[in-house]
Amino acid sequence: MSGTFTTSAARNIFFGGTVFFALVFLALTFQNERIIPQRDQRAQLAANPGIAVGKRLWETNQCIGCHTLLGEGAYFAPELGNVYKRRGPDFIKAWMKSQPTGTAGRRQMPQFNLTDKELEDIVAFLKYVSEVNTNNWPPNVEG
Amino acid sequence: MKYQSQSVAKIYFIGAMVLFAAQILFGLIMGLQYVIGDFLFPLIPFNVARMVHTNTLIVWLLMGFMGSAYYLVPEETETELYSPKLAIAMFWIFLLAAGLTVVGYLLVPYATLAKMTGNELLPTMGREFLEQPTITKIGIVVVALAFLFNLTMTVLKGRKTAITLVLMLGLWGLAIFFLFSFYNPDNIVRDKFFWWWVVHLWVEGVWELILGAILAFVLIKVTGVDREVIEKWLYVIITLTLVTGIIGTGHHYFWIGTPEYWQWWGSIFSALEPIPFFAMTLFAFNMVNRRRREHPNKVATLWALGTGVMSFLGAGVWGFLHTLSPVNFYTHGTQITAAHGHMAFYGAYVMVVLTMISYSMPLMRNRVANSNFAQVVEMWGFWLMTVSMVFITLFLTAAGILQVWLQRVAATPMSFMDTQLQLSLFYWLREVSGVIFLIGLVAYLWSFFCKGEAARA
After folding, report:
1. For range A33-39, the mean pLDDT
2. What is the pLDDT confidence band of residue B456, given thresholds at 50, 70 and 90?
3. Would you kindly state where each structural domain of chain A is located, as residue ranges?
4. Which residues of B297-313 are buried (b: 16+ CB within 10 A; e: fewer)?
5. Interface of B with A in 340-399 (CB under 8 A)
6. What class has domain A41-143?
7. What is the pLDDT of residues B4-34, one digit of tens each?
8. Nearest to B410 by CA among A12, A106, A140, A103
9. Long-range contacts for B419-423 (Cβ within 8 Å, ≥24 apart)?
10. If you measure CA to CA, which chain B residue comes closest to A59?
11. Chain B 287-326, CB below 8 Å of chain A: which residues?
12. Residues of A in contact with B228 (CB under 8 A)
């Protein structure tokens, strides 16, 4: 790399290239914002305030520290993006109430002491996430 | 060391090393919990250990970047730092905030920590890597702004070089994209979409600018190759980085509720992301081969070459492995991701910070290079940590392949937990590799205390 290719030419290509591709990315983002209303179940979100409460509970109990949600998070415990479809609402509530199992040597889930209302909200949140259009991910119900 | 104020870097590096040690200890705890599920439960549940493991990593890398910048910028701009006092004050504030946050993670349940810190006023907690209480996040912003102010004022009064320009772009980008951590909509799709504007645009975007600038600086110093040549390489590398990496964000938008077109954009652009890393490898080796001096600090050169190779393997090759959407459909959220994450973070960011520490610490301790003995001990640290990280990555990859097969491909898929039991062997091997990593870390840290006559050219 010598001769006619100067440092200032390299710098200009850097700035030009970065700005151009950043603008393309922004255009894709705007397009994304236009399309996702058909996919992200926002009508459900507006109709049921419990979903937002459930999301907050999801966050403040740091569920993502062990589980994945739509494949993102920790890989220590099962995927929960589709747990509503895999297990159903009653199982989820009963499961959370009965933790930890205390089985020796097995992974343990803490007891979060949620009220019945809070369990309802968590379930509402998980139901909402399970109905987001994820391009058919995960490959099967096991997550 | 040419400027007195460069020495503020030292406490940043020491702080970084302390947090690095904590990160590894908690990593070993988590690794054991993968095979002995109830280990330390309920004292340190897995999610807590993981928060400490990832958050200490992020904070010590930030400290490493800050220390590197404080060392590099005065030398490049040929002027003293605008305010060394501000730099030192910010270090203690940062360390205190990080320390209190970790203590909070360990001592109270996360939900209680959220309540104590007023998360409901501006809920930002509970998202992966961004678990810090909102108040800590605000603290990070304050520290980052003071840091950027200090450096920008230094750059403005001094010589302008390509290396400082690229470094400053990277650091400003780091601060700006962190602001998206305060945006947490109820809509999970938009939450995830913009969460990546922090995470991806950091590690596959602006952090690579910081990485490139630090590597270029150290290579100029240890090889004596013309600045002109090195700066041209730097621009080419970061052009490739951002041209591929910005739209490469799309490889996170395959399965989170975002439209199908991201599968094309994300797959194609992120498939090109290994190119800048390969250029970085060529860069490091080329410059060292064309060296015009024999720098007595051999181990710093080793770290620089190691960064070139390992970042390409970890970020480039292991990233490519699962970045195409038809592949990612099966591998998304499995141990394959964990394998890539480990080698990429180690190979790119851990190693570049250790490169800078290796080069600059002796100078801040009034010698060009450490004694031969200290360098040999540090090289043991280099090889033990690097080779064990290769094995951690290989074992996690094996676990990931098996996991994908049993849980997602097989005719009768197994449940997540049943699959995990089948992976125990690989998790055990990973844990053994982790212990060797720790031994390497101990050797590395010990090298700072090794005496002996300073090495000469």
Report:
1. 97
2. low
3. 1-39, 41-143
4. bbbbbbbbbbbbbbbbb
5. none
6. mainly alpha
7. 999 999 999 999 999 999 999 999 999 999 9
8. A140
9. B420/A107, B420/B34, B423/B335, B423/B399
10. B126
11. none
12. 7
What digits encode the pLDDT tens for the residues B145-184?
A: 999 999 999 999 999 999 999 999 999 999 999 999 999 9
Nearest chain B Cα distance for residue A16, angstroms: 9
Average pLDDT for residues B210-239, to the nearest whole number?
Answer: 97
CA–CA gap between residue B82 and residue B211 (Å, rounded): 23
Residues of B in contact with A71 (CB under 8 A): 255-256, 332-333
For B26-53, the pLDDT digits (tens) are: 999 999 999 999 999 999 999 999 999 9
CA gap B285, B305 in Å, rounded? 6
A135:B254 CB<8 A: yes
pLDDT digits over B299-338, tens only?
999 999 999 999 999 999 999 999 999 999 999 999 999 9
- The mean pLDDT value for A93-117 works out to 97
Residues of chain B positioned with their CB less than 8 A from the CB of A99: none
Does pLDDT of A2 surpass 70? no
| Distance of alpha carbon B439 from alpha carbon B449, whole angstroms | 16
Residue B449 has pLDDT above 80, yes or no: yes
Taking an 8 Å cut-off on Cβ atoms, the answer to whether B126 and A63 are in contact is yes
Interval A55-69: pLDDT, tens: 999 999 999 999 999
Mean pLDDT for all residues in chain B: 97
Q: Please state the three-class secondary structure of B98-164 as a single string.
A: HHHHHHHHHHCCHHHHHHHCCHHHCCCCCCCCCCCCHHHHHHHHHHHHHHHHHHHHHHHHCCCCHHH
Query: Number of CB pairs < 8 Å for A and B?
Result: 224
Statement: residue A1 has pLDDT above 70? no
Residue B256 and residue A72: Cβ atoms within 8 Å? Answer: yes
Mutate to test the interface with B, among A19, A20, A28, A129 (most CBs of B within 10 A): A28
- B185 touching A (Cβ < 8 Å): no
The verdict on B338 touching A (C-beta cutoff 8 Å) is: yes
CB-based contact B192 A138, cutoff 8 Å: no
CB A78 within 8 A of CB B417: yes
Which CATH superfamily groups domain B212-457? Answer: Cytochrome c oxidase-like, subunit I domain (1.20.210.10)
Residue B386 token pair:
């690097």
Question: Testing the interface with A: which of B120, B160, B247, B256 to mutate, by most A Cβ within 10 A?
Answer: B256
pLDDT at res. B151: 98
Q: Write the residue in A25, A73, A78 that is nearest to B417 by C-beta.
A: A78
Contact B146/A at CB under 8 A: no
Instruction: Please identify among residues 238-257 of chain B the ones whose CB lies closer than 8 Å to any CB of chain A.
Output: 238-239, 242-243, 246-247, 249-250, 253-257
Which two structure tokens, joined as six digits, stand for A17?
């290239």
This complex has an ipTM of 0.97
